[in-house]
Model the fold of this input.
Amino acid sequence: MGGLVSQLQFALPAALWGLLALPVIWWLLRFVPPRPEQVAFPPLRLLLKLKDTKETPSKTPWWLMLLRLALAAALIFGVAGPFRGEVPPAERQSGPLLLIIDDGFAAAPDWPQRIEALTSLIKDAARQDRTTALVGTTAQRRPPSLAPSAADDLLKILPTLKPQALSTDREALLTTLKTSATDFGSVIWLSDDHDQKSGTPFATGLSQIFAGNVSVVTLDAPKPLLALANPKLKGSEITLDVLRGKEAPLTATTLEAKAADGHVLTQNDVTFSDGQTNTAASITLPIELRNEIQTIAIKAQGQAAATLLLDDRWRRKTLAIETNAATTDDLALLAPTHYLANALEPYATLLSPNSGEELKAATDAGLSMLVLADVGKLPQADHDAIAAWVEKGGLLLRFAGTRLAGSADDLLPVQLREGDRSFGSSLSWETPQALAPFTAESPFAGIVIDPKIAVQRQLLAEPDAELSSKTWVSLADGTPLVTAAKRGKGLIVLFHITANADWSNLPLTGTFPEMLKKLVDMAPAAGSTDSAAISASSQGRFALRLALSGTGEFISPPSDLPSFTAADLETAKASPATPAGLYQREGENRAVNVMANADDLTLLSDYTPLAAQTLKPNTLQDFTPLLLTLAAILFLADCLAAVFLGGLWRKQNILAAAALLIFILPFHPPEVRADINITTAMQAALQTRLAFVKTGNADVDATSLQGLRGLTFIMTERTSANVGEPIGVDIEADDISYFPLLYWPVLPDAQAPSAATASKLSSFMKNGGTILFDLRDGGGFGGSANSDALKRIVTDLDVAPLEPVPEGHALTKSFYILKDFPGRYEGTPMWVEAQGDAASVSADNVSGIIISSNDLAAAWAINDNGDPVYAVVPGSDRQREMAYRVGVNIVMYTLTGNYKTDQVHVPALLERLGKP
Amino acid sequence: MANALQLAGTAEAGSGHLAALLVRAEKIAASAMLGVHGRKRAGPGENFWQYRPYGFGDSTQRIDWHASAKSDRVYIRENEWEAANTLWLWVNRGPRMNFKSKLAQDSKYDRAMVLGLAMASLALRGHERVGLLGSGERPKLGRSSLTSLAQNLAMADDRPLPPKQMRQRHSAALIVSDFLDDLTDIKAALLPLASLGMRGHLVMLADPAEETLPWSGRVNFRGLDLSANYLANKTEALRARYADVYAAHVEALRQLALSLNFSFTRHRTDSGLAPCLSQLHERLSD
Done:
């Protein structure tokens, strides 16, 4: 506690003089008592007779005085701004302060802590009336501004300060500082605690420039960093190295491969053995999934070096298909390349070089695979180029054909016999051959062989000792069908059949693309690093589409970045000129990664000649808000006391009020929500049923229920509509969207629905629901209390113009042919939305509103025995029957829409059909 | 002007209240016994007194033919002589009366009105005339006049005591007030009544808070009809002395009533009205 008091400092110590005013306040308070309770008192004359007795001097109660003094003291202390904190290193120094912050990826994981530290340092400087300059150690595209500025301005830009996806470049900053900045009173370097080969020289350099006024602030326990490096595509797997710093405590971590939409495709656990600074990891995925990978990241690292972006080069392979056979467009299915191109398209980018130069360019650019379909002898130049490319690791796939049968060169895995072998022809006694099952050693092992495959012709290999080892696939009789041989680093594969259906039906089966896919997987990645040439087909420049932030997240790129050629990005590492991120041009993208090395991850602990100071979170404790809050609370208490002493509250009221206050204060009153009756909603949703609006008048509601029951009974008897037990809804609370028809008896005292309900009703009608308003007075419109009530209800609804049901309206023929619409009363028309109005054609031309005044429900109403409840006026069985028919028509109209009106055209259509 | 407006406003508010008060008054009155003011001899009246044989000088119109037809003699029907007495009513409607503490059931005004109207109703049922002191109107007879009486009563009048005015001799006066004025003023107002030979009945209405002074702590007492105020720093300490002053005032009033041969009744607004009413009724009937 003593420590607390001794560490207490004040932002405005002068305000403490205000404490001298406390005795004055005490004296004043003592003689200004609180306002007395005011009472009107009739027998005042009698009281005035007591006036002669001596008046005791009124005093403020001691506790009230204490309360008010405490309030004044809290205010004074609050204004003085007491705070407690670690005395910052630059304390009590003058001259501008230079803050140097390492803002590379290594600082990213603890960035909020660093910003907090910066904030407190800047505020400290502001308290001493010092201006501050802030500079980052990563290389900047613009030279850093070393002009000091006021604390407020700096604090405003602090939130925009983000770690960069770059390594720090402290040497460059040191050079800048040497030349341009020496007039700083002190310098504080917020180190990211990582060496990056420049830690010690930077510390030395700083102390030379600023002669001892430099201090280093480091984080107490920096997060151990990991990085990804050396990604390689090896067959169908991606291999990469996971790096860690020396003495890093992390021994295991998890790699995640994520797609562009962020979902995780696979996770790999990686472990380090003791003392190892890097460990190999691999990611194996089916090619379709692998093509989706956009980033590979180490879980929970939160910095850019642990994030690896993959681009197109990691996904698809380039391959070229060349043939000598002439193709014509109308014989596409016979073309030797048709099936090849279709089978390879999903897995690779296809090129079709038309000349020797293009082929040369393609192989130089790092072609993955070259397919020669029925090419006999290659021109010497092409031959040399291809041979050299295969030597370096290319995969050459050849298909046989008549040309190859005629003349072969040496780019073949086996020696071929001249001429071909054919089966099943008129001159042969051999039948077409099926494929022998793939051997376990064959690269095609695992592919299901289509039993319909039959080979009619093939080229035969000269038998020699190595033939069987070179054979990947053979026919049922043992003759090799696919042979392969290594050549240099590359591979030559020969299919002894054509790539089209001339010699066999293999290209027509599903087995063919499977086999080709395996071959593509075996082919090396496109664009081998030693080939600088860029394929001729790719023109245009790359622009940064998604930049990588220091925390390894995608951010929008800076707007002032130029575009780049493919060559610029080919070997680019993240730098201010080429920020890390995904660059894009027409259908193609390139990634630039941070690619940290092991040095970047080494911890820096020795800052000599500078003294390092560990950054403690929350170094500053400001008591001002606390004191001001206390003052506010005391003020409230004082108000309460004044009210209490003024007699506005009696004692028991105070208890009640306190209880009320306790009850109210901590809770926000829960939003009162109309609890939708779940049972009702479920019933309503499970079956189509008629519904009526509960009016609150028990008689009317009972009639509505009975009426809808009667109508439902009639519906079930006479129509195929399967309508459930009717249901009453509370129009304000219940969900009405389940019902096709809502029967709404209008009472004279009906009130307008609330705004929410009005919009509910409007959307109900808009979405095809129909509301049947019943005025129940038999008197038509105008003047009656019921129609006034209807006007009130409908005012806020979105209702189209109305008209009496016109002749030929769907309501007159949706089930029965009707002329008028009687209910319990007859003679008044029924009103619907006008047909001509475009707005009313909301849902299949079904009127959202039907208004009757004939008390339909009363006419429909039946009791439990099925007998009618109300007499109809003027009354006949026929009228009741017609009322039921009206009901059936209305329900059918709402359920089936206007299709009956379409039937109007049937005679005309039939007539037209009759006329030849 | 402002005062007139204020009075009109009060009157209007009061007349809205009037129907309820009237109903209450009638109810209370019905619970009390109807007074009999019969003179125990034949005379002008409505109640049957006796049949008397027709004698010389009697008007033939007075022959009761129903009674005469029963026998050979001719009878005259005589009713009991009922002379109507006059009850003069005064209800204090001044600002002091609009006081109602939390201990009371009604304001003093409501109580006074109900009490006055109930007594008027009783008197009217007893076929007596009832008039309002200070209204300038003649006393009226018949139960229908209760409404107009109530309307007149509801008219604002902030005089605490009945004004001087020519009044009928040997009638009764019922004065309902809180009698918190100076004793000299009260005496000056009551003496003219007594000098006319009127039988006076004083009803002193009091709010329980006026008797007990239930407040405590620092209280500023303001008068309702006085502009003065009294600031008490420790009200609980005042209570005993105030009780003495109050008791002395009541005692002085009682002595005054005694000296004028008036009856004196006290009523507190937290107690029931019926006992007070029957007591008053008894005194009025004497």
User: Anything to note?
Assistant: The interface with chain A takes residues 96-97, 99, 108, 178, 180-182, 207, 210, 215, 217-226, 228-234, 238, 241-242, 245-246, 249 of chain B (CB under 8 Å).
